[in-house]
């Protein structure tokens, strides 16, 4: 199996176009990663969490996959993925705020006093402090992974949460996490989210 390991704002991601079964997953645990992105011959992606469970979507993983392969097909609500000079960009349909969680293709609970990790069935994000100069910091606990250095869908969910609660009024916000930051631009029906993809190494077993 051939694979590429990369970071998006510090999040460990592994990408492979080869078939990935349970036996290989057991072997893959020797590689430190948060999500494994498997791309088939049609450019369709599957996202496998650190614990072997499947993720509904992965925004950082989609950025990373598109960075290396042009033929990938983003999973809704991602509309498109493309490169700029410095960043990978996603265009995403605005998430749905149900009042209990924010649905951006994967479910996120977001609040300023979130008790991280107390619900293993949903992604959870704690917002730290208040928006200052259109910047805010977050900590995210991903279902099937645990605490992560960065999460693209959490950044989008946080932007929606803050916007809906009137905590910022512009159309651009910088969402910072321990591993780096996402820039979010909000329009009535869509969001643009950007981050930096860094290749760590290519591997094979």
Structure description:
This protein has 205 residues and is mostly beta strands. The model has no long low-confidence stretch (mean pLDDT 92).
User: Structural class of the secondary elements?
Assistant: mainly beta
Number of helical elements: 3
What general outline do the C-alpha atoms trace? globular
- Strand/helix succession: EEHEEEHEEEEEEEEHEEEE
Helix content: 10-25%
First CA to last CA: what distance? Answer: 5 Å
Strand content: over 45%
Q: Unreliable runs, pLDDT <50, ≥5 residues?
A: none
Query: Nearest-angstrom radius of gyration?
Result: 16 Å
Question: Biggest β-sheet, characterized?
Answer: 11 strands, mixed
**Mean pLDDT over the residues:** 92
Number of strands: 17
